[in-house]
Amino acid sequence: MGHRSTGTFRTLHALRIKGFATVSTLADMTGSPSRDVEAHLAHWSAAELVQFRETRALWQLTATGRALHLDLLREDVAPVVPNSDLAAAYGQFLAYNEQFKELCGAWQIFKFNGELNDHSDAGYDAAVLENLAHLHAAAEVPIAIASGALRHEILQILEAAALDQLFQTIVASGDTPESKPSPGPYLLAFEKLQQRAAETLEPRRCVAIEDSVWGLESARQAGLRCVGVTTSYAADELRGAELVVEGLHVLTLPMLDAVVRRGPG
Fold first, then answer.
1. Is residue 1 very low, low, confident or very high in pLDDT (cuts 50, 70, 90)?
2. Domain 141-261: which topology?
3. Would you list the DSSP string of the chain?
4. Per-domain boundaries in the chain
């Protein structure tokens, strides 16, 4: 029989995920009657783990509640989830959840002036949706960077583009004894992704996206599938790529899935 959390904990956990919520929303999330959710909230409020915000008419966790949530979650799933697996998954959840809530806020309120978003600025809305698509892709498919650049250079670029939280791991110059075309950078990136993944990864179902000849050689030696991007070399020079595109903007998850579904080239 599968593990089922108590209704009291499900209410607390749903509130941690949502951030702010009404009783009705929590009832929908947990599958509990509203009267039960109200009793759960009263229980957690007495323990000072949740509070009701009169100004917004919404419930939220207190700082203490947020701090203790992981311990309570660990206790709740202890019979079915090893603690080491939970710690890794929880850290990943928090990173994605905070970004998701920030995007939800950006959709409702203009970040640059704090005013309500009336959705008259199509460019602003498109940017929020694009960031949401990036976040969804990162949550659905674990991604890493294996680069010959210095770590601080990589982070500077990612932070400027607000992409720094989308990559589960970064392998930079100096992290491996040899750089590309050695397979070392990609082997290490794969190893680190495997450590954080909830299921077993297979190199033949992992895709390296490269714009250099040496990078493609490195990825192929590591047993990965390869996509070439013609930003540095012409298509006919990117030998070893199973798919060549003109830019990252044209790549989609179905295209990458098609690469891994067919036999190695």
1. very low
2. Rossmann fold (3.40.50)
3. ------HHHHHHHHHHHHSEE-HHHHHHHHT--HHHHHHHHHHHHHTTSEEEETTTTEEEE-HHHHHHHHHHHHHHHTTTS-HHHHHHHHHHHHHHHHHHHHHHHHHHB-TTT--B--S--HHHHHHHHHHHHHHHHHHHS--EEE-SS-HHHHHHHHHHTT-TTS-SEEE-TTSSSS-TTSSHHHHHHHHHHHHH-SS---GGG-EEEESSHHHHHHHHHTT-EEEEETTSS-GGG-TT-SEEES-GGG--HHHHHHHHHSPP-
4. 7-81, 82-140, 141-261
Interval 21-32: pLDDT, tens: 899 999 998 889
The domain defined by 7-81 folds into: Arc Repressor Mutant, subunit A (1.10.10)
Q: Tens of pLDDT along 222-242?
A: 999 999 999 889 999 998 899
